[in-house]
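Hi Y.,

Following your request, here is the sequence exactly as I used it, all 454 residues.
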Amino acid sequence: MEKLVPFLFVAGGFTVMPFWLLMVFRPRWSLTSRVMRSPWVIAGPLAIYAALVVPRLPALLPVVARPDLGTIAAVLGTPLGATVAWMHFLALDLLAGRWIFMDARARGMPALVSAPILLLTLLFAPLGLLAYAVVRSRAGTTIFRWGAVEWGRLRRAHGPLALLTVGSAGLLIGSLLLGAFDHRQVLGAPVWLKPAKFGASGMMTAPVLAWILAQMPSARRLRLAGTIFAAVAALELALIAMQAARGVPSHFNFATGFDAAVFTLMGTSISLLWLAELYVAVRAFRHRFATPARTWAIRLGLAGALASGAAGALMARPTPDQVSAIRGGRPAPALGAHTVGAPDGGPGLPVTRWSRTGGDLRVPHFLGLHALQVLPLLALFLERRRRTAARPVAAAAVVWLGLFGVTLVQALRGQPLAAPDAVTWGLLAAVLLVGAGVLATGRLASARPRILHA
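Below is the corresponding structure, written out as tokens. Let me know if you'd prefer a different format.
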């Protein structure tokens, strides 16, 4: 039996894995339901456990009857002890997963909710049970019902963008979990920080774009633009995650032919995404939304997102050092940079890692991109509290887009965000004055949005 222990260790995993695959990937299949009704799904690891433990009960009984840390550690530190413990884990983990699966089906819980919890249970069963207990609680049930309603609305608004929202959230959660165990760094930042940030960005952008499209005339080209946006963004997220898993930079990376091909594909695809967003913006400027506040919020939010893309394109320009290397015939492992006047990967601000030693083009890129969420949310918030919300929305848009311009100038001058000089302060004051003027006079907000016919 001792010689069979390595084989039994591997065989135990094969006895339970088919049931996990059925629960996670084919939860609605009738065969899955029939199979998982039986508690004998754990028969495989139970049989191996019994075959290893029963003949050794006289020796093991005193150990488990009066457990001592040193003795338990000594037993588990042998191949036989580890295999016995592993069969114990496999059996009880599958039993916990089976209960979660059956209870979730009885409650009508969507697979999109139960599948991640089952995967967590497979890896760390107590954490999976804790997560399911939270979801199953009264507060969790309320949140789940609200999420189910909102998911239905989002899917009806635009299916591909709804899937992008879920995928982006999955990337964010997965990156945070991986980052807790994988401590590698790329250019001075945790390797999974960039996928997490891009996942968060996609999770916020996709539903807002779907909401905008749902308020515009249903047209095949508009929906196609949303589908192109979703497909390209999904490709971008997948490539960023792949490069993070490899432990190499995803952007501006020309260290190898493969890395150059990946970044070239990312650059080409993001150009297509920008064009799709441009088409939506043009149509939005031809459409009058439910209220003037919402009209200006959506139009200027899309304008900010387009400006963000333009700022992103500036990052792809080779730096002076990279140009010198190319002209001198030296290898250039990177072409383009986030930072102006300092190398990428230097000291950065907490969380964002924006440069503290040079200008950082990611700052205006961030502000422009998230105008698409901030301004519509502000419009919706104010619409519920006052009749006329257009003026404060217009003022906020002027200030937000003005901040984009100020930080773009600051970055191009090679100045860190946290170290503004008199010129930057002067530009910021001018932006605030213009915003105050719009709020006071309402010139922009009072302009009646004009509908241009195609």
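The beta strands are 185-186, 189-190, 339-340, 359-360.

Thanks again,
Q.
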